[in-house]
Amino acid sequence: MGYIRRDLAHACGLMNLLGEHDVTLDAKGRLLLPAALKKQLGDGALKQGFVINRDVFRPCLVLYPLPEWERIGQMLRRLNRFMEKNMEFIRRFTSGATPLALDGNGRLLLPYALVSDPKLGKDIKLLGLGDRIEIWSTDKYATMRRERVDLTALAEEVMGSLGNDEQQ
User: Fold this and answer.
1) CA dihedral (80, 86, 90, 91) positive or negative
2) pLDDT tens over the chain, length 168 residues
């Protein structure tokens, strides 16, 4: 029953990837996808594959299950390509995007150009962020976590207006 429910949720685009996972890149730049993430992804998403790309805001990579990347592609296709800013964003956002598939041992071979850009190193942190997985160097992730952020103010600003329609 759980597999059917999870596959239905994935088919409807309701993926909810969670957790922090420590992994190690091998000498060839491969990482073993943790069993917990594989379970959350489900067989369908694992078979469809992924797209990996640089993050827009931080020095990390983002691993998108293929259905999520396709959803983003649909948004990009709605942008007017005769506007220079739109084309510049599309160009910069999609440069480096690379399709990936799990090998027979459940590993992903990360493209060297992308791995060297944020200088990932050997020790990696994978973060499940709902519909995607961020890939951080362990050191850079620790530095980001130490940054001072007023989470109370941020939560109020970002999430404070959500749900008001239901209360009225």
Assistant:
1) positive
2) 344 444 444 444 568 999 999 999 999 999 999 999 999 999 999 999 999 999 999 999 999 999 999 999 999 999 999 999 999 999 999 999 999 999 999 999 999 989 887 788 899 999 999 999 999 999 999 999 999 988 888 888 888 888 766 554
